[in-house]
């Protein structure tokens, strides 16, 4: 386990059982401030359950959850919301029939005392937000419907929203799987840029090349256990591939081959 | 505003935070519409996908056609005071108020097929309470009854998670039965509770228009501010459009759906008062047609059958279009079944049109 005293989120001994089925087995790791962490693993490795536990949607059977030095015994969505954890799921972050501006302020509308929205102010702030996100190109107006955006643009809008509302940890679930090559590059650029603002992100993905490009650290899951937790400079795409595909055996074989060569 | 006229616009150089490359970026914040013409252009461009504009144009064409026909031929008295006040100004508002209730519920992603039965029940409540305690209590009781019915339907749908189609279809039979249980099958008559103030308020005749039209305008304006300008209206769109996205940012879809059911119920209550005061009577089981007519009006007005899309103006225009064409068929002495043919056809055409619009928007 990487020792990092300046951590933002620390999970220790996270275990999740559904009946007799152990989905997560004693998983521990830190996420540092401003760190981009790749959470990798094959289907069924336990990634999505781990994401749900981190975002407070599902409770762990056992394990500790600490945030910025404070232990929280009861983790639910209200807590993670107040801590500033935002999970961006691939297809369900935005409402397609609503404008960009209304999506950005959904549930956090700027209103007067009667609860009536200040549309002009929301539109103006939305334009500023979209301008500050350099990777969102080709958007003509904050009033444009989200359904008229490309997958990459919509994803960037969802992330821009999280950034605007000062979220401190973004968990991105398979963010690049639906994106075109250029949109993917733009998104990865944007994630790198977020680091400068001290925002941490967890990138949950199948795509090792994307993860390797942008993440500072990689955590590989296999059958509910963490089998690798390694900084980018200490690993390679080949090692990560071996870990994801073949598990611990793959790591061992890769390292033996590397030493032999 | 289009990419072609960038030549005259200001360009700002913005460096991406870390990549170091310099790109030309058009700043949206500097391109907000300023003049009325620009704002109108913006409005047309970004609301066109929401359907109200096209249906408004169709209504205008139909009205112009009827006006010309009426001027040309005395046999088609569309413009007569009797027709405008006696028919149109009474039939459009009731359907429009119901369409607003149905429309808000549809935007939230739900239906209520017990609408007609609920009108029957709350009308009978209104008549009996007015006759016994005065119409002030009758009005309160009618709105409370319809809102209560809608909330019960809403709770069944929200708690059990069964589709609102089947839940409210069952409840439609239940509330018709309940009306007969309370009232018997003979019509309930509004006698003692009826006085001049009540008639002026809910069915007053002011020459070319009636009180109902004022109710429609008041309800329309309040509903517009609520749905399109209030944060709760925004939540209704969010829940109907993508409930999981709404939940992810801590909007509770169940609460929002119940709120929509309650508003729908209040609209049904008001409509039943308007109907009962005008006709002075109500027979249980005679109001079933309103259910599909109200859904038709909402759909014709561009409300999506899948939730998340619709406008108050569209709902009113949809109701007006159905009632005016119906009126034209009657004035043109078309046989009664033409109206059924027409309403059936218009629902299907409007639903197909909505689907095409949704496809276009994405």
UniProtKB/TrEMBL annotation, chain B:
It is a multi-pass membrane protein. The chain crosses the membrane at residues 51-72, 84-106, 113-129, 135-158, 165-186, 206-227, 258-278, 290-307, 337-357. It comes from the Bacteria. CDD domains: TM_PBP1_transp_AraH_like. It is found in: Cell membrane. The keyword Transmembrane helix applies. GO terms for cellular component: plasma membrane. Its main location: membrane. PANTHER family: ABC TRANSPORTER PERMEASE PROTEIN YPHD-RELATED-RELATED, AUTOINDUCER 2 IMPORT SYSTEM PERMEASE PROTEIN LSRD. This is Autoinducer 2 import system permease protein LsrD. The lineage of its organism: Bacteria, Bacillati, Actinomycetota, Actinomycetes, Micrococcales.
């Amino acid at each position: 386990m990487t020792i990092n005293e300046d951590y933002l989120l620390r999970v220790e001994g996270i275990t999740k059982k559904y009946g007799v089925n152990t989905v997560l087995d004693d998983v521990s790791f830190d996420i540092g401030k401003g760190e981009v962490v790749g959470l990798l693993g094959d289907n069924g490795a336990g990634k999505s359950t781990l994401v749900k536990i981190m975002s407070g949607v599902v409770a762990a059977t056992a394990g500790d959850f600490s945030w910025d030095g404070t232990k929280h015994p009861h983790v639910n969505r209200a807590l993670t919301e107040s801590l500033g954890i935002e999970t961006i799921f691939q297809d369900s972050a935005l409402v397609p029939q609503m404008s960009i501006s209304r999506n950005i302020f959904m549930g956090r509308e700027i209103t007067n005392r009667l609860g009536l929205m200040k549309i002009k102010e929301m539109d103006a702030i939305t334009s500023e937000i979209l301008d500050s996100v350099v990777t969102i190109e080709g958007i003509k107006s904050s009033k444009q419907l989200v359904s008229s955006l490309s997958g990459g643009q919509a994803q960037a809008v969802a992330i821009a929203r999280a950034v605007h509302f000062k979220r401190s940890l973004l968990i991105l679930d398979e963010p690049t799987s639906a994106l075109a090559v250029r949109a993917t590059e733009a998104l990865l650029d944007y994630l790198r840029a977020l680091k400068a603002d001290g925002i941490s992100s967890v990138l949950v993905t199948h795509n090792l090349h994307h993860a390797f490009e942008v993440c500072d650290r990689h955590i590989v899951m296999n059958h509910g256990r963490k089998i690798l937790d390694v900084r980018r400079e200490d690993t390679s795409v080949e090692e990560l591939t071996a870990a994801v595909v073949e598990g611990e055996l793959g790591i061992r074989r890769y390292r033996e081959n590397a030493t032999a060569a | 505003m289009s990419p072609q006229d960038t030549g005259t616009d200001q360009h700002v150089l913005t460096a991406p935070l870390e990549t170091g490359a310099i790109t030309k970026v058009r700043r949206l914040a500097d391109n907000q519409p300023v003049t009325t013409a620009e704002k109108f252009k913006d409005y047309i461009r970004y609301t066109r996908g929401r359907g109200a504009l096209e249906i408004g144009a169709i209504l205008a064409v139909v009205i112009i056609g009827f006006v010309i026909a009426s001027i040309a031929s005395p046999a088609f008295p569309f413009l007569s005071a009797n027709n405008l006040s006696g028919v149109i100004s009474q039939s459009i508002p009731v359907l429009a108020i119901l369409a607003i209730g149905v429309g808000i519920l549809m935007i939230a992603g739900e239906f209520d097929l017990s609408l007609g039965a609920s009108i029957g029940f709350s009308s009978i409540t209104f008549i009996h309470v007015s006759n016994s305690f005065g119409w002030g209590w009758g009005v309160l009781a009618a709105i409370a009854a319809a809102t209560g019915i809608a909330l019960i339907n809403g709770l069944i749908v929200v708690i059990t998670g069964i589709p609102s189609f089947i839940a409210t279809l069952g409840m439609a039979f239940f509330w018709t039965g309940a009306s007969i249980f309370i009232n018997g099958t003979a019509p309930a008559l509004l006698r003692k509770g009826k006085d001049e103030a009540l008639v002026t308020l809910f069915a007053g005749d002011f020459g070319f228009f009636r009180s109902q039209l004022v109710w429609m305008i008041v309800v329309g304006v309040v509903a517009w501010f609520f749905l399109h300008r209030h944060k709760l209206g925004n939540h209704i769109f969010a829940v109907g459009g993508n409930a999981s996205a709404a939940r992810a940012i801590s909007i509770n879809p169940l609460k929002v759906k119940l709120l929509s059911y309650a508003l729908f119920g209040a609209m049904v209550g008001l409509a039943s008062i308007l109907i009962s005061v005008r006709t002075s009577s109500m027979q249980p089981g005679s109001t079933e047609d309103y259910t599909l007519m109200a859904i038709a009006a909402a759909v014709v007005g561009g409300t999506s059958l899948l939730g998340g899309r619709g406008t108050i103006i569209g709902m009113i225009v949809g109701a007006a279009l159905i009632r005016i064409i119906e009126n034209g068929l009657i004035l043109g002495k078309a046989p009664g079944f033409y109206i059924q043919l027409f309403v059936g056809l218009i629902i299907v055409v409007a639903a197909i049109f909505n689907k095409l619009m949704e496809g276009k928007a994405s």
